Amino acid sequence: MSNLSLDFILKRGVAEIISEESFRRRLNAGKSLRLKMGFDPSKPDLHVGHAVGLRKLRQLQDLGHTVVLIVGDWTAQIGDPSGRDESRTMLTHEQVQVNAQTYMDQFFSIVDKARTETRWQSEWFGKFTLADVFNLTSRFTFADMMEHETFDKRVKEGKALSIMELMYPMLQAYDSIAIDADVEFGGTDQKFNILAGRQLQERLGKTPQEVFLVPLLVGTDGRKMSKSFDNTIDLKAAPHDMYGKVMSLVDDVIVEYFRCVTDVSDAELAEMTRALKSKSINPRDLKMRLGREIVAQFHGADAARQAEAEFVKVFQQRELPTDMPTFALKQPMPIIDLIIAADLAPSRSEARRLVLQGGVKLNDAPVDKIDALIPASEAVLRVGRRKFVRLVNA
């Protein structure tokens, strides 16, 4: 990435920079900037959507700037209220610690750990007194908080909005003071919180941080990529699973994915757009290239080639996967129980939905009744498009 131009870094896969003119001046001044990226380890897994911002951090690291990773071990216990119509369940300190380690392992698969300063919020919030809390809250008004669309919506609908949740943007803003941030990165859904940091710096007489926002990618079902929708392409996914999920994306998002998570040239992007519009190329071929590009980033070129070969074998030649997990049955088992026990669906409701929608097959024969009993015999169970398990008689 080190050979990329500044225009490429500031334009490709970028939703908005506030302000770009000021940011360019600071980049050209020759001083190493402190690039803030905060995360709340409320959930441990990162996905390709997160990679959009992480790639930007790495690109700027390669220009000599320092990433400051803030582990939100305090705010994670509150939960980011952005875009949520209800209060989030608080996490324990132990849950936060476990999630944080998993998160960082994935974070540093993209961002250079040697050029990253890792900070925990407890370094400063652990020393906060009641006087500090009052001082912080005095820097913001109720009107400031009501500019947050989620807060305003919940108040108008008469839904609960706790004072603790109102504190979340203030605490995230204070992080910028604590680490002396020059720039803060996040998705477009974080705009309010990041602007709060800029606002607090100004009100305390400091140079306001620049705001660097990246777009939110669409998931495998056409909605915003989110663990809540079970539509993510996880960074820790096995190569064949990562490739298969890329192939399941809707055609309309192919170019956006190339724009946000690869370094193909702008000229190639323009040609892809033209070819798709004129229907002179099969979208499947572009998705296969996209799958190779993404898998190669996280698993290497050899794994990408193997994942593509496996996809062709299973989905184009209709053969069984080379490798699949084995599940031993001692006696006949209800299909819903089996799907959950074999870890083929995240919940019983999802398992029922898959059965009723024809997404479950036993040796290629549909299993479409939720009370079906699966015999304890040799067979291949397929759930959805990409999940297989070989059943054996124990």
Q: Could you name the key traits of this structure?
A:
394 residues, alpha/beta, Rossmann fold, Tyrosyl-Transfer RNA Synthetase, Structural Genomics Hypothetical 15.5 Kd Protein In mrcA-pckA Intergenic Region, Chain A, 3 domains, 6-stranded mixed sheet, 5-stranded mixed sheet, 18 helices, 13 strands
Mind explaining what this structure looks like?
- The relative contact order is 0.10.
- The radius of gyration is 24 Å and the shape is globular.
- By secondary structure, the protein is of the alpha/beta class.
- A 6-stranded mixed β-sheet has the order 1-6-5-2-3-4, with helices on both faces. Strands 7-13-12-9-10 form a 5-stranded mixed β-sheet, with no helix packed on it.
- The chain folds into 3 domains: 6-214, 3-Layer(aba) Sandwich (Rossmann fold), CATH 3.40.50.620; 237-316, Tyrosyl-Transfer RNA Synthetase (Orthogonal Bundle), CATH 1.10.240.10; 326-393, Structural Genomics Hypothetical 15.5 Kd Protein In mrcA-pckA Intergenic Region, Chain A.
- It has helices at residues 6-11, 20-28, 48-61, 75-78, 93-107, 122-125, 130-137, 142-146, 149-156, 163-179, 191-203, 239-247, 254-261, 266-278, 283-299, 301-316, 335-341, 348-356; strands at residues 16-18, 34-39, 66-71, 116-120, 183-187, 210-214, 326-329, 333-334, 360-362, 365-366, 373-374, 379-383, 387-393.
Q: What is the strand and helix layout of this fold?
A:
Elements: H1 6-11, E1 16-18, H2 20-28, E2 34-39, H3 48-61, E3 66-71, H4 75-78, H5 93-107, E4 116-120, H6 122-125, H7 130-137, H8 142-146, H9 149-156, H10 163-179, E5 183-187, H11 191-203, E6 210-214, H12 239-247, H13 254-261, H14 266-278, H15 283-299, H16 301-316, E7 326-329, E8 333-334, H17 335-341, H18 348-356, E9 360-362, E10 365-366, E11 373-374, E12 379-383, E13 387-393
Parallel strand pairs: 2-3, 2-5, 3-4, 5-6, 7-13
Antiparallel strand pairs: 1-6, 8-11, 9-10, 9-12, 12-13
Helix pairs in contact: 10-11, 12-15, 12-16, 13-15, 15-16, 17-18
